[in-house]
Design a protein that fits this description.
Blueprint lengths: L2 H5 L7 H11 L3 E2 L11 E2 L1 H11 L2 H4 L6 H21 L10 H6 L3 H14 L2 E3 L6 H21 L5 H13 L3 H12 L1 E5 L2 H16 L18 E3 L11 H5 L20 H17 L9 H37 L2 E8 L4 E5 L38 E8 L5
Parallel strand pairs: 1-2, 3-4, 4-5
Antiparallel strand pairs: 6-7, 6-8
Amino acid sequence: PHTIERENTKISIPDKAFENLFDLFEHYSWHLDDTPGGQADEINPDVLGYIFEKYINQKTFGAYYTRPEITEYLCERTIHRLVLDAVKNSRIGRSYESLAELLIHLDAPLCHLLVDEVLPSLSLLDPACGSGAFLVAAMRTLINIYSAVIGKIKFLKDADLIKWLKKIEAEHPSISYYIKKRVITDNLYGVDIMEEATEIARLRLFLALVSSARTVDDLEPLPNIDFNILPGNSLIGLIHVDPDRFAKPSNGKLVTKSFLNEHIADEYRTVLKDKNESLRLYREHSFKRSDDAAGSQGERLLMLRDAIQKVRKDSYQKLSWILKGDFDELGIKFEEVVWDDSNQQKGTQLFSRDRITSQIVVHPSFSKRAVYYACKGYSDQLQSGQGYRRRCTIHEKRQS
């Protein structure tokens, strides 16, 4: 269930509202892929991003629609160079001037390297993903590379590569669907300060995946990318987490030690290792075929997701205390402001160290002397019957 459904169990929308919505949708021609058909009434996933970025306050959030030609060019330039560098620095140590040259010289050792090591290990992060335009373009770029490699494998007389390809074809009705799903799961990551944007980004990737299925039989479970694309601020946070500081009590108070279960030691490396393993299992769940009932599989998936969420929530409490300590050391003033949605103005400044629950993001481009922090999300309480959105203002003090 969606967060809105979990938090509002009594919500009820009459059927008439959906009927009116469907009547409106029927006036348009719908396409699952972004390929333009030349019709004036056509709607494709690319329109989702365009509408969203026109709907929000572009001046405030700095969100603008990026044309596909731009995203594709930038992604190709970036990903092609990553692949070329990975091949050059690999065990086979080959150097190519361009990806086209690499693809021309594809042979068994190079295909092995690409499908076993280089392509699966690429992690592409859009730190301000918006509605997912760059992520979709990155997916297309990787799919093109995979397609060229797989096409070459069919003509190579390499037993291991043929076995790898036949195994995929035997276990999945559509190799195109499988490869695209694998790219979305293994390679693509995004962060955006607006939660609505991250949901649209996930939807665009899902639609792009479904568009590769030619028949109903080609469809498989959608990938579990809840933790691939997350709301947050990628420009703020800790550069490095000191495991010793993480393991110590915060402000002299013990922090709950029930991250995965009460028997796990409260240490950063242990928590991080267990969380990453849970994430791996969660993502791989959609690739597994089981004879169990769908209900039992769904229950296991929900339990795994809830465990990961609990790890993140409990860890943020400690990470926030560590960052607040850095603030005190660097002389950075912290200020919490409430926002009254009904009156569209700032409310009383409230600073409560116990209420710091923001997501901490490690960003490599920031130095120790300039640490940033911001609050995200909504207050856990409703004050005076009004909803207050939490914001933070940071006063930076640079040290020489």
